[in-house]
Amino acid sequence: MGFRKLGICLLGCGFIGAIHAERWRMMPEVELVTCFSRNEEKANIFRDKYGFKKASKNMGEAVSDEDVSIVDICTPTYSHRDAALQALDAGKNVLLEKPIALRLSDAREIIRRAEKNNVKLMVAHVLRFWAEYPTIKSIVAEGDIGEPVIARAYRQSAFPEWTSDSWHADIHKSGGVLIDLSIHDVDFLRWCIGEVEEIYAQGGTYLRKDGSSPDYVQALLKFKTGAIGYVEGSWAMPRKYPLTTFLEIAGTRGILHVDNRSSASLLIHSSDGVVEKTIPMFRDGYFLEIRSFLDSVIRNEPPPISGEEGLKSLEIVLAGLKSVSIGKPVRLPLEEEVL
Predict the structure, then answer these.
(1) Class for domain 128-283+315-331, per CATH?
(2) Beta bridge partners of 247
(3) In whole angstroms, what is the distance from residue 181 CA to residue 201 CA?
(4) Of 6, 61, 146, 199, which is the most buried if we count CB atoms within 10 A?
């Protein structure tokens, strides 16, 4: 008897949904069953372009399809809770785009439902799968630069204009640049250096005065290890400005840095001189992220990024948003909702 392919339901036919659909098509173990969009015409075009069997504008019907084993949620952040709960209660394994939700209570409920229904839940923090980032984590873990003491991370882009309703500009739909964009770097630094005990952030809405979301935030993280980290996120760049990233970690015996404008080249400075590592990119981070989740379902193993991991990173950026609002450092854990 041959292996039965796992059926995929993809929710959200926008920018990130298209990226995910392209990667799912590379997986021989799956079948693209259905795609969902509130816009029926958009769903039909997406179905035909990527080879899904069906298109739907009814989320409940899409996730309940008996041929579906995995639901990949690529809808706007403000819809994550409802989409995830529908899929989990339908008994489906869920790959959920970051952030897990906009409220801690919603994130905890998503985690609880996954446990209740005995299905897999993974939060798609893709930075953990781009080749240079796990390489950096290994270098730090192996002590090549000594004990990490200072980190800096920048992530800058033009305001995301690919959505039809500009939902990123609404703080109650996206959370702003810290929650939507800088959570990439916050999550990675947590994974690499350790848990955060305090955050002090400053920022505001500088470019789009018609919006409520902060489009620029700089945050200082204090880790439980005693290390500090500076994280800067910006949507306040000119239109068509390319995504630009930079990461630097200084340790007691050396310093490393990488950026996305240097062909994924990693530089390590120490007392012995400078070492340059060119990191091979056999597959992109999105492919590896989706592949890892699929493998966890096939092998019935825990996914590499749990709901709890997504919750911890969400809590830090929400604390940062609160810090922007009150103008003071905020210690973790958070004791109340921010949005």
Answers:
(1) alpha beta
(2) 153, 258
(3) 15
(4) 199
Dihedral (Cα; 267, 131, 247, 95), 10-degree rounding? -170
CATH homologous superfamily of 6-125+286-304: NAD(P)-binding Rossmann-like Domain (3.40.50.720)
- What ranges make up the beta strands (E) of the chain? 6-11, 30-36, 54-56, 70-73, 93-97, 121-124, 148-158, 196-204, 216-223, 228-237, 244-251, 254-259, 265-270, 273-278, 330-331
Write phi, then psi, for 24 (nearest 5 degrees): -60, -35
- What is the length of the chain? 339
The SS3 call for residue 94 is: strand
Matching fold, domains 6-125+286-304 and 128-283+315-331:
no
What are the structural domain ranges in the chain?
Answer: 6-125+286-304, 128-283+315-331
Predicted TM-score (pTM) above 0.85: yes
CA 210 centroid distance within chain: 26
Residue that is written with structure tokens 């004791």 in the block: 335
- The tokens describing 333, both together, are 């854990």
**How does pLDDT run along the chain (339 residues), one tens digit per residue?**
457 899 999 999 999 999 999 999 999 999 999 999 999 999 999 999 999 999 999 999 999 999 999 999 999 999 999 999 999 999 999 999 999 999 999 999 999 999 999 999 999 999 999 999 999 999 999 999 999 999 999 999 999 988 878 999 999 999 999 999 999 999 999 999 999 999 999 999 998 888 999 999 999 999 999 999 999 999 999 999 999 999 999 999 999 999 988 755 788 888 778 877 767 666 799 999 999 999 999 999 999 999 999 999 999 999 999 999 999 999 999 999 999
